[in-house]
Amino acid sequence: RSFGFAEIGEGEKQARVDTVFHSVARRYDLMNDLMSGGMHRIWKDAMIAALAPPRRDGWRMLDVAGGTGDIAFRAVEASRRNAEVTVLDINGSMLDVGRERADKRGLSDNLTFVEANAEELPFDDGSFDAYTIAFGIRNVPDIPRALGEAHRVLKPGGRFLCLEFSEVDVPMLDRIYEAFSFNAIPRIGQVVAGDAEPYRYLVESIAKFPRQRDFAAMIEAAGFVRVNWRNYSGGIAALHSGWKI
Ligand code: SAM
User: Fold this and answer.
1) Is this complex scored with an ipTM above 0.90?
2) Where, by residue number, does S-adenosyl-L-methionine bind (predicted)?
């Protein structure tokens, strides 16, 4: 299914994504809860449990498309405030909200916020022990390029983890999910954020994102090994994992 956004070019795609997140930044956390029925919290907790940030000084993680900080905050807390986490996002409005939230929670000492593009990371090779990206990769126009950058900035032995909406593999749930996302999500967007169109774009980007197996092959093509995935909530979301050796 499609709302007709399929044929836009990469530059236009990024511009559209940026407009969505500038306009929604202040209400982003509320929208997440409404649209996922709170489930995004459970998936994010599961991602951090899989990562198991060590409770030792000097462990460095990069959270790309980190937005308002959900993944980064969880990682800092799980490491008992040992981890040094960089939150990178292309959108300054999302990062502003993230900085304010970090201050309120007293987590700022462990966090650095960087405005940059996932396709061109402003870090040296081999800088991080872990690279995470949650509900971000499908917004990036050139996914192979972003995966190549992930591989480059990781240290040998570094871990790659990507949480993303994926293909539902449970009969019936797939239909219910499609009906919900194509009808309800734009309506929730209209009511809460005052505009349905950005949410149509987001729903379509989910529908177009490669299925689990195909995305795993893209991660392997970027150079990662031992790539696998696990589904959450019947495949509504999936966590892909890989290692740089
Ligand atoms: N990771 C956060 C979470 O799970 O709550 C935020 C996810 S939000 C759905 C997607 C984020 O990706 C937005 O903050 C957006 O600005 C960011 N983004 C989109 N394109 C990007 C790019 N090319 N490079 C870096 N971040 C990007």
Assistant:
1) yes
2) 68, 89, 117-118
